[in-house]
Amino acid sequence: MLVLTRKLNETIKIGDEIEVTVLAVNGDQIKLGIQAPKSVDIHRQEIYEEIRNENKSASQITLHAIDMLKQLPKKK
Questions:
Q1: Could you tell me the keywords of this UniProt record (predicted)?
Q2: Quick check: pTM over 0.85?
Q3: What element of type H or E holds 63?
């Protein structure tokens, strides 16, 4: 993990297209601004985990449905 120190209004560049800027500091919270191409998904960690779990559940349901369909008698 790379650890950087930034002050208010300072920016971190990630590659050529992503910038993370410190917009505000209030006690133990900071506000970050992120500029990135629309093709880059940006989520808070807890939201990312929810999305990942939902996708995993959906894929398991789909696989289960496919298995059930395979067990149906075939029409002649």
A1: Bacterial flagellum biogenesis, Cytoplasm, Repressor, RNA-binding, Translation regulation
A2: no
A3: helix 45-71
Residues 6+ apart with CB under 8 A from 22: 6, 7, 8, 9, 10, 11, 30, 31, 32
pLDDT in tens, the chain (76 residues): 999 999 999 999 999 999 999 999 999 999 999 999 999 999 999 999 999 888 888 777 777 777 777 777 877 6
- The span from the CA of 36 to the CA of 39, in Å, is 8
- Please enumerate in sequence order all residues whose Cβ is within 8 A of that of 36, keeping only pairs 6 or more positions apart, or say none: 17, 18, 19, 42
**CA angle (58 as vertex; 47, 50 as ends), nearest 5:** 10
Q: Residue 52 is inside which H or E element, if any? A: helix 45-71
Residue 24 DSSP class: E
